[in-house]
From TrEMBL:
TPR repeats lie at residues 35-68. It comes from the Eukaryota. The keyword Iron does not apply. The gene is 106058289. Residues 1-149 form the Tetratricopeptide repeat protein 21A/21B C-terminal ARM domain. This is Tetratricopeptide repeat protein 21A/21B C-terminal ARM domain-containing protein.
Length: 154
């Protein structure tokens, strides 16, 4: 229901539906639906700048599913907005690992946060991995790889 409201651009109605669902207790039968609703509500909170409320939902999501790639990605985004690049890199690292090192966007964000955390060699390694699997992703070469190499030389 909440997803339909989101598609119809009725975010307040979706948020109200999701708040009700978020209060329900976790059971194995409802686990997948609860996880989806927690992630959707966290996304709504992130879009409205309520990072603390989103963080609580993401912790709840990771408590029951330690391999939830999307929860780690959102957590990394929150840390990145708070300019905590080491924590963001750790979260994106988990998202990268649990996403089978496949998503070039997560790879880009991971390399970017490695670079911001002054882990230039790790950033270069991630760039090489992304470029080997997605050669048509030149943005990472220009934005991160060249800057990280330049930082190592200095």
């Amino acid at each position: 229901m909440a997803t339909a409201y989101m598609v119809l651009k009725q975010v307040p109605r979706a948020r109200n539906q999701l708040k009700r669902v978020a209060k329900s207790p976790w059971t194995i039968q409802d686990a997948e639906d609860l996880e989806k609703s927690w992630l959707l509500l966290a996304d709504i909170y992130i879009q409205s700048g309520k990072y603390d409320m989103a963080g609580e939902l993401l912790k709840k999501c990771l408590q029951y599913n330690k391999s939830c790639c999307k929860a780690y990605e959102y957590t990394g985004f929150i840390y990145e907005k708070e300019q905590s690049y080491k924590d963001a890199a750790n979260s994106y690292e988990n998202a990268w690992k649990y996403g089978n090192k496949n998503n070039p966007v997560i790879g880009y964000k991971l390399a970017f946060n490695y670079m911001k955390a002054k882990r230039f060699v790790d950033a270069i390694d991630i760039c090489h991995h992304v470029l080997s699997t997605h050669p048509n992703y030149p943005k990472i070469r220009k934005d991160i790889l060249e800057k990280a190499r330049q930082s190592i030389r200095v």
